[in-house]
UniProtKB/TrEMBL annotation:
Keywords: ATP-binding, Nucleotide-binding
Organism ancestry: Eukaryota, Metazoa, Ecdysozoa, Nematoda, Chromadorea
One Pfam short name: PK_Tyr_Ser-Thr
Protein kinase domain residues: 1-133
GO molecular function (one): protein tyrosine kinase activity
Leader sequence segment: none
InterPro entries reported in the protein's UniProt record: Kinase-like_dom_sf, Non-receptor_tyrosine_kinases, Prot_kinase_dom, Protein_kinase_ATP_BS, Ser-Thr/Tyr_kinase_cat_dom, Tyr_kinase_cat_dom
Annotated positions binding ATP: K33
Protein's recorded name: Protein kinase domain-containing protein
């Protein structure tokens, strides 16, 4: 369990807090980044940051603490840039994001975390090609 303590700073993506991780009767000081906006762009930036953090010789934890939207579905704004490679194919056609499309995006993200050597999803395709399939 992670308990948030003092806010250490605030940036364009959100706030960073000093936290305490309680695990196996140990208490470990941690830094916790909380996104102010869980847009696909910010989520991707956080995952990229987590990949960079893997290069450091200290433990790190990445988790989603229930930051999904409160409604059952929402319509994406087609005028805003989207991370097509992480969206479920249904979203390309309907513009509607629901729980099952979030699960798809999470699966792509998990694939990214374990992909060695790392390539962005569908790296051999142009963005336009991704939406065709």
């Amino acid at each position: 369990m992670i308990a948030l303590k003092k806010r250490l700073g605030k940036g364009s993506y959100g706030s960073v807090y000093k936290g305490v991780l309680r695990k196996d009767r140990q208490v470990i000081d941690v830094a916790v980044k909380v996104l102010s906006d869980m847009s696909p762009e910010n989520s991707l930036a956080l995952w990229r940051e987590a990949r960079v953090m893997q290069m450091y010789d200290h433990p790190h934890l990445v988790a989603d603490f229930g930051l999904t939207r409160k409604s059952k579905s929402y319509k994406v704004n087609p005028d805003k840039p989207m991370n097509l490679r992480w969206l479920a194919p249904d979203v390309y056609h309907t513009g509607i994001v629901e729980k099952h499309t979030d699960v798809y995006a999470f699966g792509i993200t998990m694939w990214e975390v374990f992909e060695i050597p790392y390539h962005i999803p569908y790296h051999k395709w142009d963005a336009d090609e991704v939406t065709k399939y």
